[in-house]
């Protein structure tokens, strides 16, 4: 492909083992550029590929030319609108009316034809679109450039997701409902998990948690982190991200560990002589009931050779060879078989790949069906989504090794190179209804290629499916992305017999799992640490994928989070610390002076870190002002101070995080008291302080811990590179949260609020759905390797010089979940004020504004004051009685109604009870048996907490200002929605 051929937005993320999926910002474009710049049209051919697929007869002969030509063209940009409801409709209508309507007809720009945007007719609610503009056109046309910007910002803000059209199909056929227990076996980077979560939350009211959950699993740990990041935007407490080889995802959990009651008091027996085992002691853990893990819905979107993504990843033209698909087949079958085992009777499983290759497609499905002996059936979904063009699955195909094609296993058995019987068609397979499988061809809908089979489990699997020894955890498994030397070695020790037919078949699977669980249980009972799973992958990153040792990350950690939320918090610090607008300038003036660290009595490390961070901000602002005023000497001085203060904040925060309870600085003997450091020396002083002796506070104790091993877990845990999950049990904090926000005691903060670090002052608090918590509780031996879970609802927030009653602010992400239960610290604001807040982000309160002398300049020559001021009397009087600190600003019910937004809910105690009860109902066991998939005309399949949230923002009341704590991109989106609805209303 020549350079001129590139699409304006490049392609999306890659598929398959090693290829990552980029989303957000311009990274797509960069990925794309690096992949395509060196691939010319002449490179887009591969004789082996053409020979293989011509022989397979999966492309009608008269379409072959079209098929190849389409594969050589770059992929259009495809995106879908996230969620459903008012916001999603608004976005769709805006796109249609403001942008796409202008591109209808035979539009040409400077002689180049513009392909009009195309709505994907089969995607529910008209929420998915395809755009096809070249980079060249983007440069020439303001309207195309505006569309580009809009889509980019909407993607950044999380209201749309870029995703290849056919990749959206498998989740639609899975028909996920809110009560389902869902497993996404190979989930990263998570575009389908996102859809599954939306379906799970579909129909949930704000504050309501669906009773089901989604476990998103991937064998690659780093890709699990990517997945966690990508799915944040759904705002779901029902997600657990795990890291296993899907073919060995734990099928049995040890159950909740029970401690036998103490025996009745009896006369003490003489101690047993040494070397004689004592009788099972009454205080020994009783072996718990085994708990079988079952799911109602399973997506097996397996790693594959990926030739369906040739348009997105043209480098595959060069790399494609017959061995790719052949070598993946055994792993794909293992994963599918294990999925069948984990599936609940009556449950549905979708097997999908992005390859045209029948060895990875029909061959796997056919072998799976045969092995399951009628326990699985292939569903006929031909009536679902009729506008989605598809080809029926094949009953016959050919298998090839590096030498030649073979018509049957008999032919290949002796001379075939690395071939397995399961890859071949057979009369028994030909009798299966394989035509029910679906293959999506690129030239039919200007898409990529995909294969989908929808299966239902109608009865328990025959025992013999899993009877044979597990001989085939072969090199394919050992080479799985993310597999560690430990797993690979473990796999090899299981061995591959000569006649294994390569399938990870089996076995001794039950035994292996049982042994694993028993060993882990024994180890746990002995309070030991068993690395029963994969061992340490050597990664040291937290749930967000940040390096633990990264100084910036730690700077915010114990230091009052001042530097954490740059967009949200910096503004708050600026205006809440002390005296508002006027204060900004006075601080700027002093910020040029080296900062004193020994001021004030009883300065704790936390306060010191906070003070240092604030000083850093003040100094940085001062430096900026000086640069703007052209005073380079002052700017340089202030910059050095900012640097030194920030370093100090990092150092003190490190110490605080490490659990040192340092003595107040002035406790030091007089001679050793902190001297005011000279400019440039602060960092060194801070380092010394950070290593000074202190009282070790020790890690916090909790009643349970699951997973992980990092972040202070006392026993080390099994997985030293993953953060553990543990309940927040500090009642002093819980009581403050309940009291400050007026949350009714029924709301299960006490049982469902967790932290990901065993810190005395955890930085973030996450809410986990009951269903996820139950799953974790069944896993008493911690077999499931949890990478992340929970919805962030609170973030630690302390501000200097402010009486901040609650150390945790709400997180905008978790607001839709907790808002209905919040009865204090919330105010209604008229739409105009909300617009002002979203636009300016910080509004000065009148008293502070009055204190600023208009026209006066600071010592460095900058104008004082001059900040947007909050003047609305109704808001000011509503704000007055509220405490300093976090609050929620929302539209009134009537304004929300008029503007067409979901009205904010303030649940009465009774309603709160009902909402909570409906959030934790037991999942019905009956699963719809209708052989239909969701997604028919007009049927709504998406939803989500975020999508249906009322119009409300987290804000911060300081002594001098009101600031909102929402990221800039999200502010812009909200502002756009609000203004557009207000405009509509005014023109009505
Ligand atoms: C086709 S991609 C999945 C795409 C994903 N479903 C989505 O929609 O974003 C295949 C994924 O399988 C993972 N993988 C490879 N081998 C695996 C295994 N044995 N078990 C689980 N995941 C595996 C890869 O790391 C990769 O992320």
Question: What's the topology here?
Answer:
Blueprint: H1 27-36, H2 47-56, H3 64-71, E1 77-81, H4 86-99, E2 108-109, E3 112-113, E4 118-119, E5 128-131, H5 135-140, H6 142-157, E6 160-162, H7 169-174, E7 181-184, H8 191-201, E8 213-217, H9 221-231, E9 239-242, E10 252-253, E11 258-259, E12 285-286, E13 291-292, E14 295-301, H10 316-319, H11 322-342, E15 343-353, H12 362-371, E16 376-378, E17 391-392, E18 399-400, E19 405-406, H13 409-415, H14 427-430, E20 438-440, H15 442-445, E21 450-457, E22 469-470, H16 475-478, H17 485-494, E23 506-507, H18 509-525, H19 551-557, H20 566-576, H21 580-590, H22 605-629, H23 632-657, E24 660-661, H24 682-690, E25 695-696, E26 726-727, H25 731-741, H26 749-752, E27 753-755, E28 764-767, H27 770-778, E29 786-789, E30 791-796, E31 808-810, H28 815-818, E32 826-828, H29 831-840, E33 842-844, H30 846-851, H31 873-879, E34 885-890, H32 893-899, H33 909-919, E35 952-957, E36 961-964, H34 968-987
Parallel strand pairs: 7-8, 7-14, 8-9, 14-15, 32-34
Antiparallel strand pairs: 1-5, 1-6, 2-3, 4-5, 9-29, 10-13, 11-12, 15-21, 16-21, 17-20, 18-19, 20-21, 22-23, 24-25, 26-27, 27-28, 28-30, 30-31, 33-36, 34-35, 35-36
Helix pairs in contact: 6-34, 11-12, 19-23, 21-22, 22-23, 23-24, 29-34
This protein binds S-adenosylmethionine.
Domain SAM-dependent MTase RsmB/NOP-type: 67-458
Biased composition (Gly residues): 7-25
Biased composition (Acidic residues): 507-517, 531-542
């Amino acid at each position: 492909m020549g350079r001129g051929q590139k699409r304006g937005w490049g392609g999306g993320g890659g598929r398959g083992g090693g290829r990552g999926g980029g989303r957000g910002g311009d990274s797509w474009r960069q990925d794309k550029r690096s992949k395509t710049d060196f691939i010319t049209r002449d490179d887009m051919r591969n004789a082996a590929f053409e020979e293989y697929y011509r022989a397979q007869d999966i492309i009608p002969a008269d379409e072959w030319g079209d098929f190849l030509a389409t594969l050589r063209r770059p992929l259009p940009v495809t995106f879908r609108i996230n969620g459903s409801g008012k916001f999603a409709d608004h976005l769709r209508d805006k796109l249609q009316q403001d942008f796409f309507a202008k591109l209808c007809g035979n539009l040409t720009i400077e002689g180049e034809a513009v392909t009009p945007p195309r709505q994907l007719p089969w995607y529910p609610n008209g929420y998915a679109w395809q755009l096809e503009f070249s980079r060249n056109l983007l440069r020439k046309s303001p309207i195309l450039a505006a569309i580009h910007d809009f889509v980019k910002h909407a993607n950044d803000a999380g209201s749309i997701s870029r995703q290849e059209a056919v990749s959206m199909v498998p989740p639609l056929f899975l028909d996920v409902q809110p009560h389902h227990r869902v497993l996404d076996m190979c989930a990263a980077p998570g575009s389908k998990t996102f859809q599954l979560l939306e379906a799970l939350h579909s129909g949930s009211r704000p504050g309501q948690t669906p009773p089901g959950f989604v476990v998103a699993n991937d064998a690659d740990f780093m890709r699990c982190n990517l997945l966690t990041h990508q799915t944040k935007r759904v705002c779901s407490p029902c997600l657990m991200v795990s890291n296993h080889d899907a073919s060995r995802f734990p099928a049995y959990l040890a159950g909740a560990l029970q401690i036998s009651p103490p025996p009745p008091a009896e006369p003490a027996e003489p101690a047993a002589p040494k070397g004689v085992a004592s009788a099972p002691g009454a205080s020994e853990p009783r072996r718990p009931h085994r708990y079988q893990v079952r799911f109602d819905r399973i997506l097996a979107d397996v790693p594959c050779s990926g030739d369906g993504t040739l348009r997105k990843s043209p480098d595959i033209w060069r790399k494609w060879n017959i061995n790719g698909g052949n070598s993946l087949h055994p792993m794909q079958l293992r994963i599918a078989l294990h999925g069948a085992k984990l599936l609940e009777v009556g449950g549905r499983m979708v097997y999908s790949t992005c390859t045209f290759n029948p060895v990875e497609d029909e061959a796997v499905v056919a072998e799976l069906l045969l092995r399951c002996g009628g326990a699985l059936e292939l569903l006929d979904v031909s009536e679902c989504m009729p506008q989605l063009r598809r080809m029926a699955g094949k009953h016959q195909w050919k298998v090839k090794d590096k030498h030649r094609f073979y018509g049957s296993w008999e032919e290949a058995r002796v001379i075939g190179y690395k071939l397995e019987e399961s890859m071949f068609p057979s009369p028994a397979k030909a009798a299966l209804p394989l035509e029910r499988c679906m293959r999506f061809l690129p030239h039919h809908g200007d898409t990529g290629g995909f294969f989908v089979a929808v299966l239902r489990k109608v009865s328990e699997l025959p025992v013999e499916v899993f009877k044979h020894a597990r001989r085939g955890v072969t090199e394919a498994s050992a080479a799985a992305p993310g597999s560690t030397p430990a797993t690979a070695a473990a796999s090899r020790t299981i061995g591959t017999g000569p006649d294994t037919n390569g399938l990870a078949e089996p076995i001794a699977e039950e035994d292996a799992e049982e042994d694993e669980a028993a060993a882990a249980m024994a180890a746990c009972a002995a309070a030991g640490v068993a690395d029963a799973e994969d061992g340490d992958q050597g990664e040291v990153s937290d749930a967000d994928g940040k390096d633990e040792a990264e100084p910036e990350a730690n700077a915010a950690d114990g230091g009052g989070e001042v530097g954490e939320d740059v967009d949200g918090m910096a503004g708050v610090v600026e205006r809440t610390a002390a005296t508002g607008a006027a204060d900004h300038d006075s601080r700027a003036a002093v910020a040029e002076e080296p900062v004193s660290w020994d001021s004030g009595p009883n300065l704790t490390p936390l306060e010191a870190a906070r003070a240092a961070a604030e000083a850093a901000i003040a100094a940085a602002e001062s430096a900026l002002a000086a640069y703007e005023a052209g005073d380079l000497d002052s700017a340089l001085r202030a910059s050095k101070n900012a640097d030194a203060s920030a370093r100090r904040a990092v150092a003190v925060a490190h110490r605080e995080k490490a659990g040192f309870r340092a003595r107040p600085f002035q406790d030091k003997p007089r001679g050793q008291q902190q001297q005011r450091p000279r400019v440039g020396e602060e960092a060194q002083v801070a380092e010394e302080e950070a290593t000074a002796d202190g009282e070790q506070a020790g890690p916090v104790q909790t009643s349970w811990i699951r997973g992980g091993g990092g972040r202070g877990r006392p026993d080390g845990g099994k997985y030293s590179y993953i953060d553990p999950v543990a309940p927040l049990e500090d009642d002093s904090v819980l009581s403050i949260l309940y009291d400050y926000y007026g949350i009714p005691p029924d709301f299960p903060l006490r049982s469902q609020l967790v932290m990901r670090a065993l810190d005395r002052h955890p930085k973030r608090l996450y809410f986990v759905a009951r269903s996820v918590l139950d799953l974790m509780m069944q896993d008493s031996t911690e077999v499931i390797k949890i990478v992340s879970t929970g919805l962030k609802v609170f973030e630690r927030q302390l501000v200097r010089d402010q009486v901040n009653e609650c150390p945790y602010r709400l997180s905008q992400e978790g607001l839709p979940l907790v808002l209905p239960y919040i009865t204090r610290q919330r105010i209604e604001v008229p739409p105009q004020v909300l617009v002002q807040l979203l636009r300016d982000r910080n509004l000065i309160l009148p008293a502070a504004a009055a204190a600023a002398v208009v026209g006066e300049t600071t010592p460095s020559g900058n104008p004082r004051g001059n900040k947007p001021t909050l003047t609305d009397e109704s808001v000011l009087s509503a704000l007055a009685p509220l405490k300093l600190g976090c609050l929620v600003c929302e539209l009134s019910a009537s304004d929300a109604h008029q503007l067409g937004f979901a009205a904010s809910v303030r649940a009465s105690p009774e309603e709160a009870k009902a909402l909570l009860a409906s959030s934790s109902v037991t999942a019905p066991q009956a699963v719809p048996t209708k052989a239909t998939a969701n997604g028919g005309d007009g049927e709504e399949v998406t939803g989500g907490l975020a999508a249906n949230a009322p119009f409300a923002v987290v804000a911060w009341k300081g002594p001098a200002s009101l600031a909102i704590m929402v990221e800039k991109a999200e502010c812009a989106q909200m502002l756009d929605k609000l203004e557009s609805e207000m405009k509509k209303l005014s023109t009505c």
